[in-house]
Design goal:
- The protein has helices at about 1-15, 20-45, 55-75.
- By secondary structure, the chain is mostly helical.
- Helix content is about 75%, strand content about 0%.
- The N and C termini lie far apart (about 35 Å).
C-alpha cells in the first residue's frame, strides 16, 4: 500500500497530464492520502471483519473512485 501511495503521490506532484493547478494537486493528494490512510486504519482496527467481502476488492474500488474523480477534475479544468 505504501509503494502505491508513493507512486500516486509522485504522479500527482508532476500533475501527470491532468492539467491541475498546484492547489488542485494539493487537494487531490489530500484526498488520496485520506482514502489510503482511512482504509488502512479501518482495516487495522478490525473494521472489515464483520463482512465476508474481499478487502482487496474494496480497496481497489476506493482507489478507482479517486482515479475517476481525478480524471473528471482534469477534464473540467480543460473544458
Amino acid at each position: 500500500m505504501i509503494m502505491g501511495f508513493l507512486r500516486w503521490n509522485k504522479a500527482l506532484e508532476e500533475r501527470n497530464g491532468y492539467g491541475l493547478t498546484k492547489a488542485q494537486t494539493a487537494h487531490w493528494q489530500r484526498v488520496l492520502r485520506g482514502v489510503m490512510y482511512g482504509f488502512a486504519a479501518h482495516e487495522q482496527a478490525g473494521g472489515f471483519s464483520h463482512e465476508a467481502v474481499d478487502e482487496n476488492e474494496s480497496y481497489r474500488i476506493a482507489i478507482q473512485c479517486v482515479v475517476d474523480g481525478l480524471h473528471r477534475a482534469g477534464e473540467e479544468q480543460h473544458g
